[in-house]
Amino acid sequence: MTASIRDAARAFSGGALTALLSPATRLLGLGEPTHGVEAFPELRNELFRHLVEHRGYRSIAIESDCLSALAADAYVADGIGTLDGAMSRGFSPDFGASPANRELLCWMRAHNERRPPHDRLRFYGFDGPLEMTGAASPRPALTALHDYLAAHLDPVWSHETLDDLLGPDERWTNPAALMDPAQSVGRTSEACELRLIADDLRALLTSHAPHLTAVTSPDDFWRAELHARTAAGLLRYHDGLANTAPTRVSTLMSLRDAMMADNLDAIVRREARRGPTLAFAHNRHLQRDTSRVQFAGLPLQWWSAGAVIGTHLGDQYAFAATTFGTRGSDVPHPDTLEGLLSTLPHTRAVIDPCHLATALDRKPTPRVPADHTYFSLDPATTDQIDAIIFVKEI
C-alpha cells in the first residue's frame, strides 16, 4: 500500500500543488488545520511567492478583520505608515504577532517597491470584525459609510442620529452575549432601526455608483462597499446573538462564513483583471463539504465560506487542505489518514486526492487528535479537495 500512496505524493512545492489545479482557478483556498502554528503560514508565504512569480497572482486574502486589513494593505501597496503599525493595526488581534505574517508584509512591500501601481500586490482580510468571543460594534463601518455618502450626497440620517442609536460601544462588544442571548443588544429597537438605516445607506451607495465613482475613485467606492457589507453583516450577526433558538450558535457560524463569502466574492471581482487570489484560513472556513465542530459541548454544523463561494465560481474555485502527522506526543494512529501519510518520505508533501483514493484498499479511520484546537481531515470527504498538503511533524 505504501508504494501506491507514494505514487500519489510529491515533495511540496508551488509547482507540485498548482499541477493539481484547474487552469481556470481564480480563487485558491489554502486551509490550515489549526491556528497559531507558524509552519502553516510559513508554507503559505512560500506558496504565495511561487504563485506571484509563476502564476500571475496579485493578491492574498487571509482570515482576518476586513477593516483592519486596510491598514496592512496601505502599507504593502503604497508604503503608508510603518511595518510595526501595519502589524499592530492591520490584523485581527490573534494574528498581528505572527512572525510569518510580518514576513509576508515585508516581502509584499519589497516586491511592490519595484512595480507600478496597477501591478502591485494587494493584501485583504476577508473575515468580519468578529472573534469567537463576540463581535465588534457596527459604529466604525456604519459611520465610515455614512461619512462617505454625506460628503457627496444628502442622506436623510445625520451622524448624531447614528451616534444616538448606537450608544456606547460596550453594549455591542459585551462578551457575555455569546452564551447568553439576553445580554445582546442585537434585537433592541435601536438595533432594528440601525439595520434599516444600513440597508438604505447601502441602497443609496448602489444607486449613485456612477456619480460616486466619478467624483471619488473606484478604490474609494470599493472601500465604501466594504463598509456597507460590514455594517450590514455585523448588525445581522448581533441580531443572531440575541436569537434564543436551539440552533443559535450554528446560525452564528453560518452568518460569519456568509460574511466571509461576500468579501471573497468582492475581492475576486475587484481582482478579475489583475490575476487570481490566494485565500488563507482554517480548513473549516474553506472546505466544500459541510463544516462541523464541537463548541461548548454543542455540535455545530454550517456551510463554509468556501462552500458558498464555490457555488458561485464553480471550477474557478480550488481548495487545498493542509494537515499534519506528529505534534509532540500526539502521534496519529497508523489506520488514520494522517497515519498513512506519515509513511511518506517527504517532510512536506502534496497529495493528489484522486490518486490517493485509488491507492487505498480501505477507508482510513478518522483521527481523534489529542489537541482540541486541531481538526483532522474527514477521510470520507477527500474527494471534495483538490489537493492535500501534509506536514509530517510540527
TrEMBL record:
<dbReference type="Pfam" id="PF05139">
    <property type="entry name" value="Erythro_esteras"/>
</dbReference>
<dbReference type="InterPro" id="IPR052036">
    <property type="entry name" value="Hydrolase/PRTase-associated"/>
</dbReference>
<protein>
    <submittedName>
        <fullName>Erythromycin esterase family protein</fullName>
    </submittedName>
</protein>
<dbReference type="InterPro" id="IPR014622">
    <property type="entry name" value="UCP036794_erythomycin"/>
</dbReference>
<dbReference type="InterPro" id="IPR007815">
    <property type="entry name" value="Emycin_Estase"/>
</dbReference>
